[in-house]
Amino acid sequence: MNDLPLKERMKIPRQSMPQQEPEIRNHNFKEVNQGLTEELARLEADRCLQCKDQPCSSGCPVQVHIRDFIAAIADGDYYKAVSIYKTDNVLPAICGRVCPQEEQCEGKCVLGKKGRPVAIGNLVRFVTDYEREHHITHPVEKAAPTGKKVAIVGSGPSGLACAGDLIRRGHQVTVFESLQDFGGVLVYGIPEFRLPKSIVNEEVQALEKLGVEFKRDYVVGATETIDELMQDGYRAVFLGVGAGLPHFLRIPGENLIGVYSSNEFLTRVNLMKAYRFPEYYTPVVNCKDKVVVVFGGGNTAMDSVRTTLRLGAKEASIIYRRSEAELPARKEEFEHAKEEGVKFVFLSNPLEFTGTPDGWLKSVKLQDMQLGEPDESGRRKPVPIPGSEHVKDIDVAIIAIGNASNPLIQQTTPDLHFNKWGNILVDEETMATNKPGVFAGGDIVTGGATVILAMGAGRKAAAAIHQFLSK
Fold first, then answer.
1. Whole-angstrom Cα distance, residue 412 to residue 435?
2. According to CATH, where is 3.50.50.60 located in the chain?
3. Which residue, 30, 135, 161, 380, has fewest beta-carbon neighbours within 10 Å?
C-alpha cells in the first residue's frame, strides 16, 4: 500500500476522467468517458485515506469492500482488486459506468467533506476495463448443487444480481426475459454512449458460464403465470420486472405523430438499433435538422435529449417545470448535456400539442411556472403564472416524466398484494411478498430508482430465497 504520509495524500487532486470532446461526441454513439489510464488510476487510488470504519462501503447498496479494492489498485494488483469487488457485485463494469456514486459510496467519502471524494466509480471502471482488455478470468466458488429450481422474472439489474448470488449458492437458476436481448433497462433504456451493449452482454455471458439459464421472448403472465411456474417445479420465484409503463402528460395532442414516450424512443434507438437505420430497419421520426423537445429532468430525459443530438437534431431542448436546483438527473449527465449543446428551459410546463391537418406534431403551448411550497416529495411545487402562455414550434417531442408498473403480473396473480401505484408490496428485510415462495425487488417494488439500488434488492432477496429453500 502507498506509504505516502496522510497529509501528502490529501494534497493529491482528484484525477479527471478523459472524455471525447463535446463537439465530436455529440455526433457519435461511442462512449463519452474514455476510462482512466493506469497512471491516473494509481494516483487516484493513492488519495484514499484507508479509513478503518469504511464509510464508503456503508453508502454502497451492495456493501462492496471499497477500501480493500482501492488498496489493491494502489499496489498495482488489479487482479486482486477485481476479485475483491466481484465478491459483492456481479455487474462491476456496469456499475462503474452508470451508478450515482456521488450520492452513494463517494457521497460518504471523508475527503468529500473538505474537498472532492475519491473517484470510486472511475476506479471500478478502470479495473473492470483492465480485466476485459487483458482477458483475465477469475475462478468463482460455487456450492454443491442443491437440486432446487428458482425462477428469475426479468433480466434487469435486480434479476441478474439475484441470479448471480443464487447460482453461487448451488441452486438451479433460470432467468425469463420478455424481450429478445438480456439486461432489461440496461440494454433498452441506457444509450450506447453511456453503457455499451457489449458490456452488458459480457456480464450476462459470465452468469451463463456459471450455469444460469436464460430464456428470451418469455412473457411471464402471458406465456406462463407465476402459479404455473411454481407448478413446473420452481421452488421460488423472484420478480424483477421493472417499471416499464410510461407516464404521459395527459394533455391534448399526445397522439400526434412525432410525440414519443422516452421508453419507446430509447427502446427503438438502443435495443432495436434505430441509430443504424437503414442497416437496421427500425425507424424513428427523423430528428435530422429538426427541433426536438424532451419533457422531464431525470437521467432518462438526459439520455433521450442527448440521443436526439446524435441523430442530427438542429435544436435539442429540455423543458422542465421546476428550476435547475430541483433537477433530479445526475450532475455529470446534466453537465455533459450542456457541453454537447442541449438547451435547458426551466420553470415551464406544457399545456397542449398542436398538429398539422394530416396528424403531424407542429407546436406545443407552454406556460411559465414559479416555485411555491414544498410538495409530498419535499421539492417546491411548481405553480402556473397566469397570462404567461406561449407557443413554441417543434418537430419531435419526447415525454420522460417517469414510469409505472406494467399491470400484467397484477392481473394474472390476483393473490399477490400491490399498493395503489401498482408496486408489489414486500418485506423490506427479505423482499418476500405475501405469496409464499415469491420475492420481488427493483423498480417493480420501489418505482423508478437506480441500477445499484435494484442490485441491492436482488442480493437481499437472494439471501432470503436461499434461507427459504434451506428450510
1. 13
2. 149-244+405-470, 247-403
3. 135
The answer to whether residues 284 and 268 touch, using CB atoms and an 8 Å cutoff, is yes
As a whole number of angstroms, the distance between CA 333 and CA 145 comes to 44
pLDDT in tens, 265-286: 999 998 888 877 778 877 787 8
The amino acid occupying position 17 is: M
Contacts of 400 (CB under 8 A, 6+ apart): 261, 262, 294, 295, 296, 298, 300, 301, 304
220 φ/ψ angles, rounded to the nearest 5 degrees: -70, 130
Residue found by looking up cell 495524500 in the block: 9
d(CA 385, CA 46): 52
Q: Cis omega before residue 278 (within 30°)?
A: yes
Q: How many angstroms separate the CA atoms of 27 and 18, rounded?
A: 18
Give the CATH fold of the 149-244+405-470 domain: FAD/NAD(P)-binding domain (3.50.50)
Distance CA 366, CA 388 (A): 8
Q: Dump pLDDT digits (tens) for 385-438.
A: 999 999 999 999 999 999 988 899 999 999 999 999 899 999 999 999 999 999
CATH 1.10.1060.10 is the classification of domain 6-133: yes
